[in-house]
């Protein structure tokens, strides 16, 4: 949701920052090491940033081995599938164990049935003394069967609890894969899925895209940790001004996107303005020093669903509204029926 010029400038700055750190710590400029420092510069992975900052606080520098470990932990493409596979393997093992227990139970029941058959045959024409012996054998077999059933019940209860834990683990992994760890909003992947779903239903909805004004300058001046604080502040304002069915996502960097099901254009503009005012109304204080950093503002573009829309077309209109808001002076909401949007659309055409 940025034009190519903004993307060029932003990525060049991130790249220069990564190279500066590689030079400062005299690391070899291998692609994975560059990726660690580039991601650190973007602040897109707060867990990675926190891990790097922790090492720097303790030792003042990072070795090449440290960076390899950080890459494997936070950036390796194989990390999520590995965790998923580990839980999947445990579930398969648990199922195999339950099947084995049930097989054992069937075996016990079969043996008990054979014992009863044998006893029945033994009783035919038996004398009282033999009947007593047979009854005693039957009681022993019954006690053994009851004991086996109690053990099986205990094992099945334990297995059920373990299966529930593993199910929760899978759900947690799935939720983590769809959540932005810094803001705790949904991430780009979830947004893309939700937008496709809303489009396929064909019901009215509106799309809001928002961008923090002058975020790069703010980030450069006060540092990435304070930049993270700004992102969380905006996320909080968003969450406090939407309904339960609304979907709020961190689209990337300082950009957020919201899908408002069942909301037409003008009510969506009202929601957007409530969010804008909520952000503007909060004063930001630097936690490490207590310094008052003033206020941040956001710009928001709003588009509503058209019958022939696909994901690209509605995002493009919302984007154009967002950049119309930027051109008009920032800290404002522009929708697709506003004069600012129409003027921008005419210039593009």
TrEMBL record:
PROSITE patterns: GGDEF (PS50887). SUPFAM superfamilies: Nucleotide cyclase (SSF55073). It comes from the Bacteria. Residues 203-338 form the GGDEF domain. Its EC number is 2.7.7.65. SMART domains: GGDEF. It comes from Flaviflagellibacter deserti. It catalyses: 2 GTP = 3',3'-c-di-GMP + 2 diphosphate. This is diguanylate cyclase. It holds the Pfam family GGDEF. It is an enzyme of class 2 (transferase).
């Amino acid at each position: 949701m940025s034009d190519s010029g903004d993307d060029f400038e932003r990525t060049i700055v991130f790249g220069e920052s990564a190279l500066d750190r590689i030079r400062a710590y005299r690391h070899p400029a291998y692609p994975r090491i560059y990726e660690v420092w580039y991601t650190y510069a973007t602040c897109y992975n707060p867990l990675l940033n926190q891990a790097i900052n922790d090492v720097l606080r303790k030792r003042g520098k990072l070795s090449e081995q440290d960076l390899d470990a950080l890459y494997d932990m936070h950036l390796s493409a194989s990390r999520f599938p590995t965790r998923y596979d580990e839980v999947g393997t445990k579930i398969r093992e648990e199922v195999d164990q339950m099947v084995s227990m049930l097989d054992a139970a069937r075996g016990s029941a079969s043996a008990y049935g054979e014992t009863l058959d044998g006893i029945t045959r033994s009783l035919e024409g038996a004398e009282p003394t033999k009947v007593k012996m047979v009854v005693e054998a039957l009681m022993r077999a019954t006690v053994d069967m009851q004991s086996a059933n109690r053990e099986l019940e205990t094992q099945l209860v334990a297995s059920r609890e373990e299966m529930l834990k593993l199910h929760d683990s899978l759900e947690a992994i799935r939720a983590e894969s769809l959540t932005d760890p810094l803001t705790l909003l949904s991430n780009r992947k979830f947004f893309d899925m939700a937008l496709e779903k809303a489009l396929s239903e064909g019901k009215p909805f509106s799309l809001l895209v928002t961008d923090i004004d002058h975020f790069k300058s703010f980030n450069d001046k006060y540092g990435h940790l304070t930049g993270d604080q700004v992102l969380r502040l905006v996320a909080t304002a968003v969450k406090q001004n939407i309904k339960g069915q609304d979907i709020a996502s961190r689209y990337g960097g300082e950009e957020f996107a919201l899908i408002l099901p069942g909301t037409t254009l003008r009510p969506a503009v009202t929601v957007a303005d409530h969010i804008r005012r909520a952000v503007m109304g909060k004063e930001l204080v630097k936690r490490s020093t207590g310094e008052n950093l003033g206020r941040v503002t956001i710009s928001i573009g709003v588009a509503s669903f058209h019958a022939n829309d696909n994901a690209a077309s509605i995002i493009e209109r919302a984007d154009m509204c967002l950049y119309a808001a930027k051109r008009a002076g920032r800290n404002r909401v522009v929708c697709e029926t506003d004069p600012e949007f129409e003027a921008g659309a005419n210039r593009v055409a």
